[in-house]
């Protein structure tokens, strides 16, 4: 890796800070108590200006380069630090705010996001609109000084305990599917909002349904131009599928832990399982090298290539670990365990546009095959 | 590890690609200076193109291992026969380079690879272990290049061929196979460039495993999507397909490289 002295100094600082400040295992962020523990951890990160290192200083960041952000991620996951409860805001909404938000919106929302005063939930999917996002029906109707939102969102991660939501609403029912959509930011505790937690596979309220009944949103909380929501949202989708949510540091750390597990309990004669361990290590290396080699390129349809790759890598990496653990793999209730990671990885091929949709995107937009 | 191509490397690759479309003869390679390539990353740049064009001849042996304008070798057990023909022919045994005298011809799955058994002649000098890794690396890059062409040609065929009144490229079952090949090649190539930077055993073995797997997937998909026409030698797709088959086990089988990789990761 091409790291200069500043990057190396930054790496040392992050490593030392994590060593001194890392909390013990936290409860699941999908429980009320665990959510607050994770929020507290975000605040601790923010005090050291480590919650969003690549942001400008006035928003709570350090103006760090993308390379330094990757360094931060490598150190963060190598240290075994907790999952980020604020990630939907910091990694999905924030890049969109930087690309499409007004200066007023950026100054008002980003510092609060960095300090975990607002934890954001993504409110995109609807009962009839998952990967086919343009099929959404929830609507926004003009009113004095703003809009009234009505409809239903679902599969919204962290929404059970989060403070705010962001999502698309249809504001021009006459327009074509992709047009006439507007990107709104709204308060999950505003009058007219009902949040119904949905227990996930593990029984915890990881996602929720959001019902909106004439919820008022001021013009100041429209992101981008009214009617341009699709274009605005696609920049967020690129981030979710691409680099920001799935930095290589997490996979490299997991692959290192898998190798350690293999050394401890692996049977050298079991070459089939050994090969899966090697595939996981190679996959993490490949992804890391790919990311470092593409830092200076904008994320487009290529994000679908990486989404397909890391979602499969994450799953097979965790499946391999569970196979190594043998009958003990079924033991649940241990935060930060391989099983926890496995349950999270199971969702990878489903969210952010299913992998079937990603294969279509790769085939149509990168290989030029017909729709 | 950050690796992006320099302008010179891009130009070299483009020049090679253009020239090899016209001719894959040895003179073309020499005229473009492939035999003068020095660094391992430049070697990868060149061999991606040699693979794309399915260039025949002892290219790995001459340019990557021996670094001569035209020579060839056997390196048992991973390269058990002398590959193709050249004036200078060697066999490397226990790190020592010997002259080798070709004996019987052996048929390769790839008709453009002309193999020979040999007997050992005089010992010449020691060969450093890095030479083997350069051979593996060049072979890996060649496999990626072969896979790229197989994918492109299959994409083109899927755009042109119609069945049930539709272009077959519009069928999801076809699209998804091609997308998977694209992902495999895109994520194998960084391992090859990464291995060129370190040239260590761990990274070179990982590169060969990933490149071989991706190229083989490209080959199988190419045949499946082309159907019976792909199975003929009238369409020259077999040049790429059979070279992939030969190179997947040349310069160390997948099993050998997995042993090496595990030994490096868990010493």
TrEMBL record, chain A:
Positions in coiled-coil regions: none
Pfam assignment, any one: Acyl-CoA_dh_N
Record domain Acyl-CoA dehydrogenase/oxidase N-terminal: where: 6-117
All copies of domain Acyl-CoA dehydrogenase/oxidase C-terminal, residue ranges: 227-367
Names of required cofactors: FAD
Family annotation (InterPro entries): Acyl-CoA_Oxase/DH_mid-dom, Acyl-CoA_Oxase/DH_mid-dom_sf, AcylCo_DH-like_C, AcylCo_DH/oxidase_C, AcylCoA_DH/ox_N, AcylCoA_DH/ox_N_sf, AcylCoA_DH/oxidase_NM_dom_sf, Mycobact_Acyl-CoA_DH
UniProt entry keywords in alphabetical sequence: FAD, Flavoprotein, Oxidoreductase
Acyl-CoA oxidase/dehydrogenase middle domain boundaries: 121-214
Similarity comment text for this entry: Belongs to the acyl-CoA dehydrogenase family.
Protein name: Acyl-CoA dehydrogenase family protein
Lineage: Bacteria, Bacillati, Actinomycetota, Actinomycetes, Pseudonocardiales
TrEMBL record, chain B:
Organism annotation: Kutzneria chonburiensis
Domain Acyl-CoA dehydrogenase/oxidase C-terminal span(s) in chain numbering: 130-265
Alphabetical list of InterPro entries matching this protein: Acyl-CoA_dehydrogenase (IPR050741), AcylCo_DH-like_C (IPR036250), AcylCo_DH/oxidase_C (IPR009075)
Keywords: Flavoprotein, Oxidoreductase
Keyword Cytoplasm set for record: no
Superkingdom, natural source: Bacteria
Protein known as: Acyl-CoA dehydrogenase family protein
